[in-house]
Design brief:
Layout: H1 6-22, H2 53-63, H3 86-98, H4 109-125, E1 133-137, H5 140-155, H6 160-163, E2 171-176, H7 181-189, E3 197-200, H8 210-222, E4 226-233, H9 245-254, E5 258-262, E6 287-290, H10 292-295, E7 303-307, H11 310-317, H12 348-383, E8 387-394, E9 397-402, H13 409-423, E10 429-433, E11 436-442, H14 450-466
Parallel strand pairs: 2-3, 2-4, 4-5, 5-6
Antiparallel strand pairs: 1-7, 6-7, 8-9, 9-11, 10-11
Helix pairs in contact: 3-12, 4-12, 5-7, 5-11, 12-14
Length: about 475
């Protein structure tokens, strides 16, 4: 395809996208495929000669959509949604057209400075103090790994990046039992070791116990281990639990430990002032992550890491060979020095389009609706025969079980979710909570409406009856 054909095919792609989204409610959310079904339809060798673009586009339409799980489906109540507003999708199309490698200011002046502006827009939207700066990462996993590496190096006085970890003291990182597996991954990749991630027990509301945290720190120091950092949780993946940051982060400060807060999903809710009490004390954090691609409407990937003192992370991650120097400018920001990859995409553009096209009022309305509808859904499911709510709505997430008398509740709950996801009208996922198999119900898809939630309750009730 040549550039003069691009307008034609771009228009066709946009028309297809519009029809796809308009008809999503008519599609089953998960495809009726088994492993290898799609692969069988792809030639085993690449073509030697160019193919007509009509054939390529036709094969996409024929093969791909019906073999995909539809994350933008309005009845996607599984995991946490990975959203894509139309404005964000259009911005991505334009960013792809420019195809800049935004590693340095000199390679992408507008992209770098728009990133600075969007970070500050979002800082204001979340009411984070103005002494915080930030960087756009790909995912929370990268943001958390960057924070954990900074914890490691601060604790080692930056000797690890120069001398390696052999012979260094054993470091300890503290986190709640409710934290995401990306925390575990960061600890492993940072060379700290899984056994040195201390999962602090939680209180009755599933928040990290401050007394247990302080005790763990003191015990480790008494045993010759070196506490390096604390990771707080706001809106945990399993059930939506949140730590009491005002207590946890105060302990971090008192013990001179670097702190990171994982608010990857629930951080978006903080654009609504009425929810900010949940992360009271956030101003004490050294690092915060939230993902606009999870709940705010920016399409994947787009993770924001706020930093109180960027210099610590830059000192940990930055390498400045001569060929990456900007000779004519000293006082500039090169965001590749704030994160692990050198190569960076123009992610700020979709935030600019998204925030301007919806305004904070529009984004707040969506989040408020989702949280309200989750509360209503939990109430309706609790009224159903043989159902119980296991964990109450936290933001827009709750869990429930199917417990018909005379049956094993774990087995019947598993059978129910398998029936729900095979049915295709809604999509839910499961988790283990305190040894029980439970179903997660989370509302966060950008185009979800109240009738979609009502249908979910009807589907759950209908399929549960068929299992008794």
């Amino acid at each position: 395809m040549q550039y003069d054909e691009l307008p034609i095919w771009s228009a066709k792609a946009a028309a297809w996208a519009a029809e796809y989204h308009a008809t999503l409610r008519e599609r089953p959310i998960r495809p009726n495929v088994t492993p290898g079904d799609f692969l069988k339809q792809i030639p085993t060798a690449p073509p030697q000669s160019a193919e007509p673009f009509e054939n390529i586009f036709a094969d996409f339409v024929k093969l791909v959509p019906d073999s995909m799980t539809h994350w933008q489906h309005p009845r996607f109540f599984a995991y946490f949604s990975s959203n894509a507003s139309p404005a964000s999708m259009l911005a991505e199309q334009l960013a792809n057209a420019i195809s800049a490698q935004c590693m340095l200011w000199q390679t992408s002046p507008a992209a770098t400075e728009l990133e600075t502006a969007m970070i500050d827009w979002l800082r204001q939207a979340l009411a984070i103090p103005d002494n915080f700066k930030g960087v756009i990462q790909d995912t929370a996993t990268s943001s958390t790994l960057s924070a954990v590496l900074t914890m490691r190096e601060k604790a080692l006085d930056w000797r690890g990046i120069e001398e390696g970890l052999s012979g260094m003291p054993t470091l300890r990182i503290y986190a709640s039992e409710q934290t995401h597996s990306s925390i575990d991954k960061a600890i492993r990749l940072a060379g700290i070791g899984q056994n040195n991630l201390v999962k602090v027990k939680t209180d009755s509301d599933w928040a990290m116990c401050p007394t247990s945290l302080q005790s763990a720190i003191e015990t480790d120091r008494a045993n010759g281990l070196v506490p390096a950092g604390i990771i707080g949780c706001i809106g945990g993946t399993s059930i939506g639990a949140s730590d009491h940051l005002d207590q946890i982060l105060k302990i971090a400060q008192q013990n001179n430990l670097y702190s990171h807060v994982d608010a990857a999903w629930a951080g978006s809710a903080m654009i609504c002032p009425e929810f900010r009490s949940i992360w009271k004390g956030i101003e004490m954090a050294d690092s915060i992550v939230f993902n606009p691609h999870k709940w705010l409407g920016a399409n994947f990937d787009c993770s924001i890491q706020f930093l109180k003192e960027p210099k610590d992370q830059i000192k940990t991650l930055a390498i400045k060979p001569s060929y990456l120097e900007t000779l004519e400018q000293d006082r500039i920001v090169n965001y590749s020095e704030w994160c692990i990859p050198l190569g960076r995409r123009f992610r700020a553009l979709k935030l600019w389009f998204l925030i301007r096209s919806h305004g904070l009022n529009g984004l707040q309305e969506k989040i408020r609706n989702h949280i309200e509808w989750a509360g209503l859904a939990a109430n309706e499911i609790e009224k159903l025969e043989n159902f119980s709510i296991v964990t109450p709505p936290m933001f827009s997430l709750f869990t429930f079980r199917f417990e018909p008398p005379g049956h094993d509740a774990d087995t019947k709950t598993r059978e129910l979710i398998e029936a729900i996801n095979a049915d295709g009208r809604i999509y839910l996922t499961q988790t283990l909570h305190e040894g029980k198999f439970v179903i997660r119900f989370t509302i966060g898809q950008f185009d979800t409406e109240k009738p979609d939630v009502d249908m979910a309750i009807s589907v759950i009730q209908e399929l549960a009856k068929s299992l008794i």
